[in-house]
# Entry
Amino acid sequence: MNSDRLTRVFLFASSLLILMIAAGIVFTLVRGSVPAFKTFGLRFIVADVWNPTTGRESYGALPFIAGTLITSVLALIICLPLAFSTSLFMAEYFRGTRIARILSSLVDLLAGIPSIVYGLWGFYTLRPLLISLGVSNQGFGIFTSSLILAIMIVPYATSLSTEIIAMVPDELKEAAYSLGATRREVIFNIILPSARSGIIASYILALGRALGETMAVTMLIGNSNVVPKGLFSTGNTMASIIANQFGEAGGLKLSSLIAIGLLLFAITAIVNSIGKFIINRFSK
Amino acid sequence: MAAATNPVLVDNISRRNLRNDLLKVSIIILSLITIIPIVFIIGKIIVNGISQINFNFFVQPSPDSLQAMTAIANNQTIPGGIANGITGTFLIVIVASLMAIPTGIMIGIYLYENQTSRYSDFVRNISEVLQGVPSIVLGIIAYMWIVKNITNGFSALAGSVALAIMMLPMIIRSTEETMKMIPNEIREAAFALGAPYHKVIFRVLIPSSFSGLSTGVLLSVSRILGETAPLMMTALGSAAINYNITKPTSAVPLLIWEFYNDPNMVKLVWSSSLFLMAFILTLNITSGRLAAKHKTGRKR
# Structure
């Protein structure tokens, strides 16, 4: 075998490695969650009891699935007007100006802050603020977590939609302006329709980010293993129950936590694939 | 009727201008609201963190709860530092980089060399799926693979594996994008001179895309530096400085978590966060500079 062939084989082999890692991840998660699904069946997904008392062990994922979905979707709703305005600010109103660049690097800065630091800030600044505003008694809960998540996903929702808004051809906008349209009318009748699917995709990808966030949510959600009753009640998410209980877990509890990990993996993979699918269709 | 609902055709210029101005004002206000948190977060970290930063902070391992309590009672700064976290972070990140960077660059080159094949598309998709996997799930994976089967206990290596899987898709992607920017003539010239394939890769492709590759590497490192959750499940933490990759090891984010949970050491939370943030920001800025250089280099 000559050396060129060897190099080719070597490159190909390294590409196999990432497929093996992905397959290994799925295999490990599935195998680890078998005991939980064997004991509880598919009811595991819809059962809302999390009882680790020995002898009466019973685990269900519903409180955590609900917690994850509610916090993430609420975070996305809070993030929407902010990310939307910021991307219009940078890609339309102040495009190419110094102030847009400053705003853009500040938003990028948000992406560089570690989750645990967001958690600290949420705990020591945001939580007391919410208490003093009388929004909630203890400051922990779904709403506080969603608020911090919303700040965390702003850069992801903003960067892509800024790019896509900037890609709308100038000819289209100029044609509308020449017909006497105001800027607002150009935005709502020209820019948004032609950038719509790209903008939606960037929000879906931001949602995918929010679903898997762990530390900040763990520090703020209150960690009660029940289906949240309202916006200001405490709860728990899939990621934070794993972070909280994985260390001391064994047996059936460990398997249940891995099963939650498998469900979280599946949910994020589906959400991200939808986002990527829309982007790929958009770019064609 | 149809004409009346189409806003462009409604001939009421003062009302249209008013709505136009309202939108502009609300967009500016909402954009300003977006950047308020960043200013407050950074301000809070600096104001609260600076008082604990001194020489010892960088060279001594973290204090125990009792030492911290005595210091607070005597109104002194808390002794000790985060040296065990700093060395641990370096150990874990370096081992993760050693695993992820060569593999990631090789896979990226493979994808660049075989851009249109179906198999490459499949690999790209899998890599994108991997990029979206929550870090806590990778913590579970590293626990099951390394902690349970290889090191038989919590270890720095397990943390490195979790972080390496996080880095890999980012490096693959940035490598492929960087390679695409190399003019094909350079590659063809090397082949025309009869250079063997591996020499083209190591002497032509990698050197000529070096600054682009380092940008990708620095960015991926800065993304994993602050990871806490996967390390809690793998590297666990350690009060002493440790350089053995098969033993439990601390890391700066793990120390932040420990300080946060110990009422006596809460003051150290901010200085450790300040250190971590400064580290991450430096990497981000360096990679930004490199990327800018890379781009201007292309134009010339």
